[in-house]
Amino acid sequence: MGKTILMMGAFDTKGAEYAFLREQILLRGDTVLAVNTGVMGTTDLFPVGVEAAEVAKAGGADLEALRQRKDRGEAMKVMCAGAAAVAKSLYDQKRFDGIIGMGGTGGTTVVTSAMRALPVGVPKVCVSTAASGDTSPYVGTKDITMAPSIVDVAGINRISRLVISRAAGAVCGMAAMEPPKAASDKPIITASMFGNTTECVNACADALSKKGYEILVFHATGTGGKTMEALVSEGLVDAVLDITTTEWADTVCGGVFDAGPDRLSAPGRLGLPHLISPGCVDMANFGPVATVPQKHKDAGRLFYEWNPSVTLMRTNIEENRKMGEVFARKANEAKGPVAFLIPLKGVSILDGDGQPFCDRAADQAMFDAIKANLRKDIPVVEMDCNINEPPFAAKAVEMMLELIAKKK
Q1: Is 70 exceeded by the pLDDT of residue 292?
Q2: Which of 111, 143, 176 is the last residue in one of the domains?
Q3: End-to-end distance of the chain based on CA atoms, in angstroms?
């Protein structure tokens, strides 16, 4: 049975390109629901299911007023908001099975705004002139497939014909592919991991899997933390094992793995069991040595070249104190069961006794800040071992299960 593909874009300026895309989808035996985001007009090359006036209205504005004001920035904001609202509404009505769009940076911004409003698992393909650069503003924390357009999305030629037809095949193929059903729906625990906490997280995941939980591990690279928080916010998670909270070190120090100020917030907002450990907060992440900000070099900071692409900077006492205050505040705001598990002999491999980042004063500054600012009813357990030693993982599993039991 054929699927329905939501085709969204600016039909006022790219009608011919979308007409070709629509034709390729129809040739696959699928149907098309067309949504126009073009502020200045529409097309008569194919039927349009939702016109731009409706999209603008969903974004909180009148289309004719947008046209008269001729403020492109305002129009973009309105159409982005409207596209997201319309796509989410149509999906909730079960009107489509996959979504595709095309454009330059402007068109890509609007189309991907709609895609980011949809759940993970919904097929999403965007043919874009910006697909070969930094796509994080467009993709966010969702599973959007970005296809480089190679040439501009401006006319049908031997290159665009090839790229667009393949993109049509991709979204149709995704929509037709039904993921295999799991034998049973196990409760989900998300866990945060880094290379410096892999041993601990793997041990925890193995033990919790044997207890009947499905463990989703996220690499704490900024995007990983954001994605984990997003899945929690969508109600897809039952508990959070936050062993590796290193992204806050990047937030404080200006590192490249900054997950933003909302990190550690989602579990508390939803009242989920949340075990927090200061894993890898001893390190802020930068790219190759040459990319490290000069201010850190001038300050004589301690660096460690993890590999040619990653340079780590040891966090200091003040930075750890700041993180401790933030961690306590996030936990204090939690609506569900939350607890801290602290390793006194190192928060990472590099922070072990005798290792390059071993700095017990900096570690203690964070631990003291957590305890000094934390609600009295929130448990804090300290263990006289490194975060990667087996007793720590065993205790983390024990505490995670206790928090889950409290929630029940």
Answers
A1: yes
A2: 176
A3: 42
Q: What is the CA radius of gyration of the chain?
A: 24
Beta carbons within 10 angstroms of residue 301's beta carbon: 16
Q: How would DSSP label each residue in 240-281?
A: EEEEE-THHHHHHHT-TT---TTTTTHHHHHT--EEEEEETT
> Which tokens is 118 given?
């949809």
Task: State the greatest distance between any 2 C-alpha atoms of the chain, in Å, as a whole number.
Answer: 72
* Residue where the block lists tokens 């928060």: 347
Q: Looking at the predicted structure, is the pLDDT value of residue 182 above 80? A: no
List Cα–Cα distances, 345 to 197, 201, 363, in angstroms. 13, 17, 9
pTM for this predicted structure: 0.80
DSSP one-letter code for 197: G
Instruction: Please say whether the beta carbons of 266 and 233 come within 8 A.
Output: yes
Q: Band the pLDDT of 183: cuts 50, 70, 90.
A: low
Residue 182 lies in a domain: no
325 shares a domain with 192: yes
Which pLDDT belongs to residue 72? 87
Of 152, 176, 200, which one is at a domain's C-terminal end?
176
Tell me the torsion sign for CA atoms 213, 335, 268, 342: negative
Six token digits for residue 215 = 């463990």
Taking only the tens place, the pLDDT of each residue in 98-116 is 999 999 999 999 999 999 9
Which of 353, 362, 361, 359 has the alpha carbon at shortest distance from 386?
353
- The per-residue pLDDT for range 374-398, each reduced to its tens digit, is 999 999 999 999 999 999 999 999 9
